[in-house]
Amino acid sequence: MTLSKEKKLWMYRKMHEIRNFELEVDRLFKANLIWGTCHLSVGQEASAVGAIAALDEKDMITSTHRGHGHCIAKGGKLPQMFAELLGKETGYCRGRGGSMHIADLEMGNLGANGIVAGGIPIATGAALASKLKKDGKVTLCFFGDGATSQGAFHEAVNLAAVMKLPVVYVCENNLYGMSVPFKKASAVENAADRAKAYNIPGIIVDGNDVEAVYNVVKEAVERARKGEGPSLIEAKTYRWLGHSKSDPRVYRTREEEEEWKQKCPIKRYRQQLISEGIEEEVLNKIEKEVEDEIKKALEYAQNSPEPKVEEIMEGVYA
Amino acid sequence: MAEKLYIEALREGLREEMLRDENVFIIGEDVGLYGGAFGVTKGLFQEFGENRIIDTPISEAAIAGAAVGAALCGMRPVAEIMFFDFFTIAMDQLVNQGAKNRYMFGGKAKVPMVIRGPMGCGTGAAAQHSQSFPAVFAHFPGLKVVMPSTPYDVKGLIKSAIRDNNPVVFVEHKLLYWTKGEVPEGDYTVPIGKADVKRDGKDITIVAGSIMVRRALEAAQKLEEDGIDVEVVDIRSLKPLDLRTVVSSVKKTGRVLIVEDDPISYGWGAEIAAGIAGSEAFDYLDAPIKRLAGLDIPIPYNPNLEKHAVPQVPNIIEAVREVLR
Ligand SMILES: Cc1ncc(C[n+]2csc(CCOP(=O)(O)OP(=O)(O)O)c2C)c(N)n1
Ligand SMILES: [Mg+2]
Fold this sequence. Notes:
The complex is a heterodimer.
Chain A lengths: L4 H26 L14 H9 L6 E3 L5 H6 L4 H8 L33 H15 L5 E6 L6 H13 L3 E7 L2 E2 L2 E2 H4 L16 E5 L3 H16 L5 E6 L17 H8 L3 H11 L4 H23 L16
Parallel strand pairs in A: 1-2, 2-3, 3-7, 6-7
Antiparallel strand pairs in A: 4-5
Helix pairs in contact in A: 1-2, 1-10, 1-11, 2-8, 4-11, 5-6
Chain B lengths: L1 E4 H15 L3 E5 L15 H5 L4 E3 L4 H13 L3 E5 L10 H8 L2 H4 L9 E6 L14 H5 L5 E3 L4 H13 L4 E6 L6 E4 L12 E4 L4 E5 L2 H14 L5 E5 L2 E3 L3 H11 L2 E8 L4 H10 L12 E5 L8 H7 L3 H12 L1
Parallel strand pairs in B: 2-3, 2-4, 4-5, 5-7, 6-7, 10-11, 10-13, 13-14
Antiparallel strand pairs in B: 1-8, 6-12, 9-11
Helix pairs in contact in B: 1-7, 3-4, 8-12
Bound molecules: thiamine diphosphate and magnesium ion (MG).
Magnesium ion binds next to strand 4 of chain A.
């Protein structure tokens, strides 16, 4: 599949937005300006962006505890994201949800999730709604390697397979579920091997190659839209930072981390784009624009009001 | 006596039971090399190895069910659920299976297992990592439920829970892990089903559990400066429930405030209130029974909202004054 220059630059920009947003969040955390915990996807930007690039705007996603990248790629607004992390009233969840619960229903983002595998049955349900309403939408369901050990994963994928629902399951295999290597959590070598049990396609892709991810997801999305049912795609990648705020990373070596940093999806795409003839100035300009955008978004969040205690009981029921 | 952290006392209790009885083992997510998400099992993997400190895939239903099955076959598993919120995923195995096996099989089986994890808010972990709902488990016949508030109690109760021949839901609180208290060396137990008067007083009884015991004690100290003498009863076990200790305290003080960490509707405080109202303590009451508990909302992320979602020390002080008015 050939991608337009415009699409390529969009993907480059989105990966930068995610990287810069999260590095800024990391800084804010270390400076004790963000409360609670959060999970960063630094190093995994290509799987989020490549997969979402294969969707139409009306399509939907479900996300995970490591969900900033999914949200940004699905058109999430940085000011509202920062505001949510700072617990402000202007945040995506009015400061009620925090990093793990950002949802942007308008953009088709049915939410990050604090429960490992919690989004998988929900994506299945969204696809069921599309089938019943015949609205032509596809749902892209993100989850980690660790999530494939949950009963919810198996039950939901099986249901979607039996009903041929328009959903694409994207497992971002970053080799660990918290401290436990996938090797120790799974008797099959690849998460994609689990597709056999449900008689759906299981496809492995280099999760640090944004166009490769785009290509396989695109095919799966088309298949789903045609009513041929779900696919399971496994994007092999790596999270550069700790699992969450405080993780001494005793379960892996610094050498392994270094090796993966050499496979930086953003640097790699930059080189690819330059070799394809895109001028460096164009890329530099994008980088500069993203930097400014991040600065402005953070300022907006910092200047936003706190939620009012008097409104604490609001919004439990519709 | 040595001062220890709650988390150290808990770990010491687990370790001593593992040394005492080779059928005891620990199973859960990241409990091995990582030492548990909160560090409860730190060092135990190095000491006992991977057959007795078992790291599992992310599979709470399998963790709980494997504990039930192993317990049915003579082992004494201690299952760790990383956050109390994830007990909901383990629910079928715990509630429909483990809790029922003995009675349902006509008294032939026993399920000597412990399932433990931290509840509570106060860390900004938001709606899916902050819930307190110990009373839910107390609703199911066949389960025992304990929620120790001090380092002394956590060590003594984990030992009793492991030695008990029934499934015990062992409720910790995130904010208790780093609190200190006196803990004697060596073996001792704290009985399940026994409340504890943590502070003697004559003007009012506060019945509290888990983190709220600490807050009640702090409130009591402040109220003392105004000449108000508060008795604090740590309920400690929700099932079996020690109403006797509560009733005799209320007979003495004539006033009672119940303080819980969970959302107020259908909380365990209602059970206590009904127990008092139906007991001989009723005639001794000089004021209506008062309950103070969490709001009926999911726990919000924003730190200020979060603080308002459950009782804090000033709320307890205010509620005591109200009852005394
Ligand atoms: C039901 C449930 N169990 C455990 C956790 C704690 N937890 C949060 S993230 C995580 C690891 C998830 O691993 P994976 O699915 O591979 O995603 P990754 O963190 O690697 O992106 C764990 C165990 C949780 N949030 N929910
Ligand atoms: Mg993972």
